[in-house]
Write a structure and sequence with these properties.
The chain is an alpha/beta fold. The protein has a single domain (17-122), classed as Rossmann fold, CATH 3.40.50.2300. It has 5 helices and 5 strands; from the N terminus they run βαβαβαβαβα. A 5-stranded parallel β-sheet has the order 2-1-3-4-5, with helices on both faces.
């Protein structure tokens, strides 16, 4: 059972524009492509500092941040902390293979977010976006 993108855009789709932050180039490109094939507009960044720059450039457009947790230069939780302290109320999904990291727990304690453990399928990511995020808006 492979990934089958839904090429019809849903009229009730709240999340349309995603910032995807991932330091693994191949993973970032493949996930971004899968999201685009599913009808989303995707901006990408390779680390938290770059993620902040992209978010500021497209402030007001981005509905959702999907971010790896452990990255060079600035981790995902620290990036989200910086974005949210500016008063930005953006939805967040963290993706990581490290879910018991103390620093992760400490940096995300004050934020409402979804979590998806790596490895994940594109279908599970799309489901998390459409069910977990869209219905909480």
């Amino acid at each position: 059972m492979g990934y089958h993108p839904n090429t019809e855009k849903s009229h009730d789709q709240f999340v349309k524009i995603i910032l995807f932050v991932e330091d693994d180039d191949a993973l970032r490109k493949s996930i971004a492509l899968g999201l685009e094939l599913s009808g989303f507009t995707v901006y990408t960044a390779s680390n938290g500092l770059e993620g902040i720059e992209v978010y500021k450039k497209h402030k007001g457009e981005i509905d959702l941040i999907i971010s790896d947790v452990i990255m060079p230069k600035m981790n995902g939780p620290k990036m989200v902390q910086n974005i949210k302290k500016e008063g930005n109320n953006v939805e967040v999904i963290f993706v990581s293979g490290y879910n018991n990291d103390d620093d992760f727990q400490k940096n995300t304690a004050n934020y409402d977010y979804k979590y998806l453990a790596k490895p994940f399928t594109m279908n599970s990511l799309i489901s998390t976006i459409r069910v977990g995020i869209n219905h909480s808006v």
